[in-house]
């Protein structure tokens, strides 16, 4: 019986594979032919239409249209070919058997994209994102339903679910699975930790993840879940779903993915191409500053900010907290309201030492002549007036310059060259000012920000915060905490940096963002809907207190994932014990308990672990709390571990191997082995450090070692002995003392 099913399935696979092969060959032939035609047409066009005036112009534009159409067709077919080639490598991964409306049994095969019988147009493989495919991701057989694009539900009787592992036309595994969670394919995938970069999870999406992935574009979602619950994976599959479901109105350029770092963007960059989709726009919050033209400042990065705050004075910490608080956001909004009536700061505009337009004059225009308009409209009206004035001055100067040059008796060039010289002089005199006016740079944005800090709450302390902020801005430096208000002001006051092409924004690690950061992103992308993903416990920033989800809960749909797929059960249990967090259900495999190693020979022990635990092509990471500790350890270890690589913020390409980096940088990534090299009370003395340790522990998929040279941090010392093994490795002791 078993044999027969296998044979039947292998025969079916052979048929599909043959059809796919033929389809690919046909597409290749067609494309080859089209390519020849396009080249021929282009050559003909360039020969025939070297003059495109008069009669010729009409003919030329008609020909251009035909050529464009043909080229579009060519691109579409190339895309189809790419999809078919991906499909050919593994045509499908699932099947559901349903009873159709005529009461007949029907098998629907599910794969990465739709494949139809070329003659009959029958669907042979359903795209995993097609409405009916959602039935595959329900963890049940029996009566179920799926939603079609017009919102209606279709009831279906699911008689069976089958999963496959297929390589080209070879059936490797097959099993019937009624209940999805904990099934064999998933377990098989979870055992396979040797991943280069992040992989798609399309064959094993779980029903709670499926719900998030298939939500409508218009739903603004916050997805919360513990480490390893698949938030990033879900984000990527959701993007692929949106690209499919809204293919008429959205494309890769309508979706923006904001993630913690360039390195992380590289780590996830294979998922969409693997699913046959183009990568969407990737960015980091830091890079968004250039979209509002703040990049002429030296802007502190998130990582630089963390390092600075590790050793900052209590005042600097309080200032950071104040600028990210909801209280300040409210104050800033009130301040912006207030400048509509009075107090908007402007710059005097000068050309050299000469006054071109005074701040007083601009202010008068702002409050009297254009006082009835919105702020950005008033500014744009003033811009028009100022540009007109420049044009008049330029015209006058042009005449004068011309006269001056023409009066020179020696030969200084042809008329055209003289005109060029005049233009250069005008550009030199007015270019910078013109640019400033174009960018509405006559508004003193720095002053607005500084004033907003002491607006309403005008005590000595806020005055000093305001004062010291003014000093840093004067040095053309923006601290990380100043970036959100500056971006927000720039976007809202000037109203000229809105990107309306972005329809959906996905933000990973949302716990790292403040409410104001989000408002700034919103102001820059007014047409976008959101999928935000995060974990309120993975706080690696020394000052970040996550409350964003609560703040947004009224306007966003909150969805919680509660199972974790990344680590062994033992690591997940240990990680949960750090925060006394018992809600994380581990679906991982079993493995060794994490090991706490007390040692007075740190270098020797790490070297030993690198030799015994690291296998080529694996990922093994050594983590310390801060950059300085990593650099020192790297210098000390490098002679013994030559392959060791220090990962810094400059690293843009994700790699495996033997790595060392600060703990906060490891967030979002996963490694087979994690070695925390400084699990000491002095290094993790703050209450907030418990969250950092939680995040660090959760990076390990298989093995976790925590090395301490003295006393364990509070957050680790309280963990019950059942969750770890302990080793005492004190040099001088003959044998290490293990239990
Ligand atoms: N449904 C699934 N099937 C197979 N693997 C899964 C599934 N969901 C998650 N995983 C795997 O679990 C691991 C963790 O996933 P991911 O990084 O997306 O989680 P996360 O919630 O973003 O984690 P963190 O918050 O810790 O960064 C990855 O290796 C991912 O491939």
Automatic annotation (TrEMBL):
<feature type="binding site">
    <location>
        <begin position="225"/>
        <end position="232"/>
    </location>
    <ligand>
        <name>ATP</name>
    </ligand>
</feature>
<dbReference type="InterPro" id="IPR027417">
    <property type="entry name" value="P-loop_NTPase"/>
</dbReference>
<dbReference type="InterPro" id="IPR000212">
    <property type="entry name" value="DNA_helicase_UvrD/REP"/>
</dbReference>
<dbReference type="InterPro" id="IPR027785">
    <property type="entry name" value="UvrD-like_helicase_C"/>
</dbReference>
<feature type="domain" description="UvrD-like helicase ATP-binding">
    <location>
        <begin position="204"/>
        <end position="568"/>
    </location>
</feature>
<keyword id="KW-0378">Hydrolase</keyword>
<keyword id="KW-0547">Nucleotide-binding</keyword>
<dbReference type="InterPro" id="IPR014016">
    <property type="entry name" value="UvrD-like_ATP-bd"/>
</dbReference>
<protein>
    <submittedName>
        <fullName>AAA family ATPase</fullName>
    </submittedName>
</protein>
<dbReference type="Pfam" id="PF13538">
    <property type="entry name" value="UvrD_C_2"/>
</dbReference>
<keyword id="KW-0067">ATP-binding</keyword>
<dbReference type="Pfam" id="PF00580">
    <property type="entry name" value="UvrD-helicase"/>
</dbReference>
<keyword id="KW-0347">Helicase</keyword>
